[in-house]
Amino acid sequence: MSISRQRRDEIRARIIQLIGENDFSVSAFAVQEGLSVQTVYRYLQDLEKEGVITKRKTGRKNIYTLCEQDKLFRYPLQGLKEDIIWKRDAEPFFSDLPSVALANLSFAFTEILNNAVDHSNGTEVKILLRKNGYIATAFISDNGIGIFRKIADALGLEEKRFAILELAKGKFTTDPDSHTGEGIFFSSKVVDAFVIGSEDLMFYGFSDTNPYLDTSIAPASGTHVLIQIKYDHTEPMSDVFDRFTQAPDDYGFSKTVVPVRLLEYGDERPLVVSRSQAKRLMVRFEKFQNIQLDFSGVDEIGQGFADELFRVFQNQHPNTRLIPINCNAQVGNMIARVLASTDNT
Ligand SMILES: Nc1ncnc2c1ncn2[C@@H]1O[C@H](COP(=O)(O)OP(=O)(O)OP(=O)(O)O)[C@@H](O)[C@H]1O
Ligand SMILES: [Mg+2]
Question: How far out from the chain centre does Cα 74 lie?
């Protein structure tokens, strides 16, 4: 029985995906797909001939990997136009990406390159493009002041790491006359992996493990942004924007999700206890109508912290709804206690 064209394409795509995820075995794949081992080998040979995969032997075993293509560009930042760079140099390189992945990557790429032009105060940007049929990568690296330092200086933060909390909330900009502070927030959410490194800090917009993050491009001065999207990325940008708007008739960026854990960046067991931590967390909360406070990774919160947020802030800002999510029993009980005392007053 011959296999339809569509089925053949599906088998090829699945092989590429499994090799990309380092999870491919000829015999397991044959069983899963109901194919003979010989048939699977034929697919592998074709992919090898086309330059999509390579094979090397370790002992008696064949190890398959995806072939990668790279391209490196350097541009002076002065007068650089991000849309022109995308159209002229990046889009042709990524021309084999399906339309959703390409559109989302184009958005994140141009936002991040625009940031280098408008905010870095640097002189040069390097861009590394990489693809392998499974995942596409853009690494955008400027030689400017460094994003966390810039934000910390602008806000007078006592530590650079608190800049990460502001980026995670969204709507943060150091240039409100020309910008809205949405670029990094949405860029990080329309792709599969998003990492910003500068000096000794890394911001992971997504928690996926990142097999292509190379230590030879470890963060130094300047700002270095890694953007990765899988070829089979399915969520279009419009759905992401919808997730962060309050209602179908509201087109603004009015909802956000704040990982409370970022208050204690780097600590294994964040201690979220004090009123001053709550005050740091709630900076600019009034710009949103709906804030999900994500307590995942937080074992315990203090009464002062919960009271400041869920009673004091909430009473003063009835138009901003705070919604705790991913709470363990202790965190949930503490919030419930504070809310009960609010109801009684
Ligand atoms: N490459 C960079 N170098 C230094 N600072 C940066 C860099 N990229 C971003 N920033 C800082 O981070 C802030 C947030 O960036 P983001 O892209 O989210 O918003 P924005 O550029 O201000 O506004 P928008 O993207 O909506 O036009 C910027 O206002 C700027 O202070
Ligand atoms: Mg921006």
Answer: 24
CB 177 within 8 A of CB 119: no
Are the CB atoms for 97 and 124 separated by under 8 Å?
A: no
Q: From the CA of 41, how far away is ligand 2's center (Å)?
A: 47
Question: 326 near 261, Cβ under 8 Å?
Answer: no
pLDDT digits (tens, 9 = 90+) for 70-83: 999 999 999 999 99
**Backbone dihedral angles phi then psi of residue 58, each to the nearest 5 degrees:** -120, 110
For domain 245-344, the CATH class is: alpha beta
What was the pLDDT predicted at 245?
A: 84
The residue whose two tokens read 């965190």 is 331
Q: What is the pLDDT of residues 146-197, one digit of tens each?
A: 999 999 999 998 888 888 889 889 999 999 999 999 999 999 999 999 999 8
Q: Are 209 and 75 in contact (CB under 8 A)?
A: no
Tell me which residue of 172, 134, 163 sits closest to 263, measured CA to CA.
163
CA of 276 to the centre of ligand 2 (A): 29
- Residue stretches of the chain with pLDDT short of 50: 207-217
Predicted confidence at residue 202, as pLDDT, reads: 82
Chain position carrying tokens 């705070």: 322
Strand, coil or helix: 28: helix
Q: Residues whose CB is under 5 A from ligand 2 (ion)?
A: 115, 183
pLDDT of 327 reads 95
Query: Would you kindly state where each structural domain of the chain is located, as residue ranges?
Result: 5-66, 69-237, 245-344
Residue 183 and residue 127: Cα distance in Å, rounded?
A: 18
The residues near 102 (Cβ < 8 Å, ≥ 6 apart) are 91, 94
The CATH architecture that domain 5-66 belongs to is: Orthogonal Bundle (1.10)
Architecture category of domain 69-237 in CATH = 2-Layer Sandwich (3.30)
pTM: 0.88
Counting ligand 1 atoms within 8 A of each CB, the residue from 125, 184, 189 with the most, and so the one to mutate, is: 184
The residue behind tokens 């560009």 is 73
